[in-house]
Amino acid sequence: MSSIKNNIGKGLNIALINGFNGDLIKIASFDMYSGDVEPLVDFLKSVTDGTLVFVASYDDPSSKLNDEARAIFASFGSSYAEKLYFRDAWVFVGVKGTSAKSKFEQPYRWPTSHTAVPPTIPLSHQPYSWPTSHTAVPLTIYCPTSHTAGPPTIQLSHQPYCCPTNHTAGLLAIPLAH
User: Fold this and answer.
1) Region label for 143, one of left (φ > 0), alpha (ψ between -120 and 50) or beta (otherwise)
2) Is the same domain home to 39 and 106?
3) Are residues 129 and 85 in the same domain?
4) Whole-number Å distance between alpha carbons of 156 and 17
5) What percent of the chain has pLDDT over 70?
6) Which domain holds residue 40?
């Protein structure tokens, strides 16, 4: 599975491999953010004994993941499926028909400190109107890269902003209508 082959999707990407001869049985993708969990549950229930289950998440693996789907992944050997949260990254290789926990599982918890927050603009009781030159006013934005000192404070401009450590924040700041 790869973006180069264009065979991955948002949510959970699953490949089923015959555990006896290594043949690819089936691949599927399940959108766990805006999709329905029932097709995933039906897919997982159809897995036969001895089948290797390869799972790789992309974007959000858990928003629609219910207890039944989590329990099925646990029955394939997952130690982490029951603990998946919004936007966690997760790769897992399990097998249907074993009680052993998989040694091939790697979760990555989405850090809560990276939760995007809306820009903050200091408010005052004084009326304000934009000068015709659109001079800069302080604006705090979120940068998707960890900063120990907190989010950077920037000046409002008509140019895309890159934080001081050169991690593109990907936004264009423009004056707000008055």
Assistant:
1) beta
2) yes
3) no
4) 53
5) 54
6) 11-110
